[in-house]
Amino acid sequence: MAQILVRDDGIELDKPMLVEGLPGIGLVGKIATDHLVETLDMTYYAAVECTGLPRLAVYEEGERGVLPPVRLYADEETNLLALQSDVPISAEAASEFAACVTGWLESEGVTPIFLSGLPAETEDVPTLSGVAVGDATTWLDDADIPTPEERGAISGPTGALLARASETGLTSVGLIVESHPQFPDPAAARRLIEGGIEPIADIDIGVETLVEQAEQIRTQREQLAQRMEEATQEESTQAQPLRMFQ
After folding, report:
1. Digit-coded pLDDT (tens) for 145-173
2. Phi and psi angles of residue 90, each rounded to the nearest 5 degrees, phi first
3. If you classify domain 15-245 with CATH, what class do you get?
């Protein structure tokens, strides 16, 4: 049965925001979300058991217990949730996964912030832009996050989540950042946090550790990046221009 299984019902949240961190281009969403979970010392809140997700057990260094591959973490102080995934979501599972997660978000009054990388190789500060559903347009304006410079599409599970939010009218934000098309990109994740997540969620996370550990992050994420490269383009969350269709 597709469901979100709350593991810690002692945590109290009031219409929280959620930061989505599914693996995708540059692993920008995953790196940013992992950083939030670690920096805020967020609590394991719920297991995501939606149809189509791989059945496997994740274990941590120095820990005896095991965890599901897709999880929700929570922080009462910042009224924040984080969707953390250690596996890519297949194209076949994306629609059902999006319906499962979005249904729970709606029932709990959660506002999601979706994260996506736009393939680009640049030495400059990565460009950040945003799209929105419902009242979230105002938040983007208040945070001085510009609209996309060209027509495009967000694919993969993040695209499915944003499409589902649009269909149901769930107020949502979609942040799009330039990121390396093949390798983990901590600089792009930093841009997401500083330019998008912090002002929209009204929090101050700090990215000093993320910057200092950039090389370490690249090494740790190398294996997952290789798996994403081997997956089909539809299975990889990314934003991309639509010029080829015009």
Report:
1. 999 999 999 999 999 999 999 999 999 99
2. -70, 160
3. alpha beta
CB atoms within 10 A of CB 212: 11
What pTM does this model have? Answer: 0.87
- Angstrom distance (rounded) from CA 184 to CA 73: 22
Q: What is the CA radius of gyration of the chain?
A: 17
DSSP element (H, E) containing 39? helix 28-39
Q: What percent of the chain has pLDDT over 70?
A: 85
The C-alpha atoms of residue 75 and residue 14 are separated, in whole angstroms, by 11
Write the Ramachandran bin of 52: left for phi over 0, alpha for psi from -120 to 50, otherwise beta. Answer: left
Res 1: pLDDT: 45
Cβ atoms of 129 and 178 within 8 Å: the answer is no
Strand bridging mode 43-49 / 3-6? antiparallel
Backbone CA torsion sign across 25, 180, 28, 223:
positive
Cα distance between residue 54 and residue 100, in whole Å: 15
Query: Sign of the C-alpha dihedral, residues 87, 178, 159, 92?
Result: negative
Backbone angle region of 150, left / alpha / beta, with phi > 0 → left and psi within -120 to 50 → alpha? beta
Q: For residue 86, which of 108, 56, 109, 106 has the smallest C-alpha distance?
A: 56
Q: Measure the CA–CA gap between 127 and 184, rounded to whole angstroms.
A: 16
Contacts of residue 75, Cβ cutoff 8 Å, sequence gap at least 6: 40, 41, 42, 43
